[in-house]
Design a protein that fits this description.
The complex is a heterodimer of chains A (385) and B (349). Chain A is α/β, with parallel strands linked by helices. Chain A has 14 helices and eleven strands. Chain A is 34% helix and 18% strand. Classes of the chains: A alpha/beta (385), B alpha/beta (349).
Chain lengths: 385, 349
């Protein structure tokens, strides 16, 4: 990258099932204004806006960013809309970062959002496409067979998913923005919750949320002068692969492994588990934490579940994962990837509050989408690369 | 900034398609790659533009990955915008120095749906979409204001239509084409006053592919490189009552940032799906009578939604590449009444 980029402002909305107190413009403004306030800037200081969300059918508005242009202070500016399925919150930030890396803009506002209560995500995901078989099972129905394949391969104990969900739900109690906060959460409550898509139980699943997350990015000299310490972008990576073909490994996808390898190479990481202090990983269903630990090289193949089992991914473990409570606790789909980035950035800024990992200097944000096909990742550092 | 050149451009034959989006796209990708001189595996970055709402299902672009061949996994991104903005993202990616070449594609298949109804979903969802104004009526409001303000006449609009359709005769990808008498056009009934059928776009299904590369690659592969000398995009407010609909301030600003206004241009490819929008853009971009407008016939004669902006840039590229001009303005638009605009300046070596 030609120019360094720092995250100098972060803003999140309160995530909830139905934010009926705000319109769509109100929702995105809530996050954008908080990010600007964090950076002690106004819309006038922003050169361009990069916005992302998942399918427009989730709200029933076609290209809603055109309607949101003035709410985002984007009038007279470049406004780009990214959409890469579930990974969109991550890839949107990556595109925004590239505008700084390329030296095209000085300060960029990037935002991911979803207002699922405007429509119905289950409907939005299961429209019957012409000439194709409609799955009509939502995302859980799609991913459950991949999880079963993982269990068969790795021999993971069947309560791995429950343990992951318990860890994330306990973490969510420390995050004021989290949607699902269940004070009396325990192992039995999750184990006894209804089985939705075997082996995924209700409390092992992400919720449908309304919410937005925004970040202000700045070039090096402006980031140095920011009121709070910036999170420096050390590396970004994206990879995509086709949905299906004979021989594709959808459980441990090559695109995810390639993106991680690219990220570590750029960030000069040789031992990710030792060198990365904590990570926010896109885990919409509990078992995906164990699966992604392997895909990202934090664990040997077949051993991801052991990290969960041994407590390595807990807030006080050696490799804390989803300190914020993760996608399992808040899932405004188009924002979920950006929340991973923002929470990873908060950690190196030392601003993660009750869920701060002491002394976090290098962190990772991760998002995936489609049928485990689209991957975006970012490596943040307390120090410049 | 790194110099970026266009290596190749291909588009499907415009028509109402029975094939699905991937089937439309696949041969166009192949054609653009062959022309570019790069193999699929030599492309560093891929970026696409499309709309879920046109396809009527979420993640419309996911299956399209099969059309470009994403194995081994590729560096890839997608904008829910016209392909012209995918070109912009790819151009930015080359500017970062991380990649040297990119394949851009876009597609739109509007024939199965009710486009007038679909496009109403782009308006204010709380206050305007509920009224279900069709796109031609919204454009009609803009045309009425423009004619009243500018002193131009419905005849001026018909002249644009007749010229565009005549020029489209030479474009094998164009749909509405032929010799039309201005008087006869003016005798036709209104569709949405003051607009008649000839003032409104003829829609088509289609896919478009472009390959670009940084100068070091482009110089090796291209006999006559066509350079993107400037590229910029801007947006105006959405509410139809907030902005002056008789102008396109975001197009004017993008043009200024892209370097329009410096030096002369042989021709311009303007993404003006309605006749009056061509006049608004010509005035706004300061393109005089010496600049030929839309030699391809433009988006009025063939509107492949989500591809027609990239088509304008591709048409301009092809014209320069074959020596029919040295310098051109190419433009793309999105949203109702020219709300969002991208302008680039192309120049032959």
């Amino acid at each position: 990258m030609a120019h360094l980029c720092g995250v100098i402002g972060i803003g999140q909305t309160k995530y909830d099932a139905k934010r009926i107190d705000v319109s769509m413009p109100g929702l995105v403004r809530e996050a954008a204004l908080r990010a600007l306030e964090d950076a002690e800037l106004t819309f006038a200081d922003i050169d361009a806006v990069v916005i992302g969300k998942a399918p427009d059918t989730f709200e029933g508005v076609m290209l809603p960013e055109n309607y949101l242009a003035d709410a985002l202070g984007a009038v007279g500016k470049p406004l780009l809309r990214v959409h890469t399925a579930g990974s969109v919150g991550g890839s949107t930030a990556n595109v925004a970062m590239s505008l700084i890396h390329a030296g095209i803009h000085d300060r960029v506002l990037t935002i991911g959002w979803e207002k699922q209560s405007e429509s119905n995500a289950m409907w939005g995901l299961t429209i019957s496409p012409p000439f194709s078989v409609a799955v009509v099972a939502g995302a859980g129905g799609y991913f459950a067979p991949l999880i079963r394949a993982y269990i068969a391969r790795s021999g993971a104990p069947e309560d791995t998913g429950i343990r992951t969900a318990l860890k994330d739900r306990l973490n969510a109690l420390k995050n004021p923005y989290a949607h699902l906060q269940i004070p009396d959460i325990d192992f039995d409550k999750i184990a006894n919750s209804p089985m939705l898509w075997d082996p995924i139980r209700y409390l092992e699943s992400c919720p449908s949320s309304d919410g937005a997350c925004a970040m202000v990015l700045a070039r090096e000299d402006l980031a140095e002068r920011a009121p709070a310490p910036p999170a420096w972008v050390h590396a970004t990576a994206m990879r995509s692969e086709p949905n299906q073909f004979s021989g594709r490994d959808a459980v441990n996808p090559q695109a995810g492994r390639d993106a991680a390898a690219d990220l570590y190479k750029q960030g000069r990481i040789t031992n990710p588990r030792a060198e990365i202090d904590c990570a926010e990983i896109y885990v919409p269903f509990s078992w995906f934490e164990a699966m992604w630990m392997e895909n990202l090289g934090f664990a040997e193949e077949g051993a991801g579940w052991k990290m969960v089992y041994e407590g390595a991914t807990a807030l006080d473990g050696d490799m804390p994962i989803n300190m914020s409570g993760g996608v399992l606790s808040s899932n405004p789909i188009g924002a979920s990837g950006m929340i991973r980035y923002a929470e990873a950035a908060l950690q190196v800024r030392g601003q993660a509050g009750e869920h701060q990992v002491d002394g976090a200097r290098k962190t990772m944000g991760h998002a995936y989408g489609g049928g485990s096909q689209y991957f975006s990742m970012c490596l943040f550092g307390k120090d410049k690369p | 900034m790194r110099d970026v050149g266009i290596l190749s451009f291909a588009q499907s034959n415009a028509r109402s398609e029975t094939r699905n989006e991937v089937e439309i796209l696949l041969p166009v990708v192949k054609e653009a790659l062959v022309q570019s001189g790069l193999a699929r595996t030599e492309i560093d970055f891929t970026c696409s533009g499309s709309s879920d709402f046109l396809q009527g299902q979420p993640f419309a672009f996911v299956m399209a990955l099969d059309g470009v061949g994403a194995w081994p996994p590729i560096k890839e991104s997608h904008v829910e915008m016209d392909g012209a903005w995918a070109l912009y993202e790819a151009w930015v990616k080359i500017q970062t120095g991380e990649v040297s070449s990119a394949l851009i594609y876009s597609f739109g298949k509007t024939s199965p749906g009710d486009l007038a109804e679909t496009l109403a979903l782009q308006l204010d969802p709380y206050c305007v979409t509920q009224l279900w104004p069709d796109a031609d009526s919204v454009a009609g409001i803009q045309a009425r204001l423009y004619l009243d303000r500018s002193g131009r006449s419905e005849r001026d609009l018909a002249v644009v239509a007749a010229r565009s359709r005549r020029d489209a005769v030479d474009n094998p990808h164009a749909v509405a084409k032929g010799d039309f008498d201005v008087e006869k056009l003016l005798a036709e009934p209104y569709r949405t006053s003051p607009l008649r059928d000839h003032d409104c776009p003829t829609n088509s299904d289609g896919a478009t592919v472009m390959v670009i590369a940084a100068a070091d690659v482009a110089r090796v592969l291209s006999k006559r490189p066509v350079w993107i000398r400037g590229i910029d995009h801007r947006i105006d407010p959405p509410a139809l009552g907030v902005r002056d609909l008789t102008r396109a301030p975001s197009a004017e600003l993008a043009a200024r940032k892209a370097g329009v206004g410096k030096g002369r241009f042989d021709f311009a490819e303007l993404d003006a799906p309605y006749t009056h929008q061509e006049l608004i853009l010509r005035d706004g971009l300061g393109l005089g009578d010496d600049v030929r407008i839309n030699p391809s016939g433009g988006s009025l004669c063939t509107r492949t939604l989500f591809s027609c902006g990239l088509n304008r840039i591709g048409d301009a590229f092809q014209r320069i590449a074959r020596g029919d001009g040295d310098r051109a303005v190419a433009h793309a638009t999105q949203g109702h009444c020219l709300q969002q605009n991208l302008v680039c300046v192309l120049e032959g070596e």
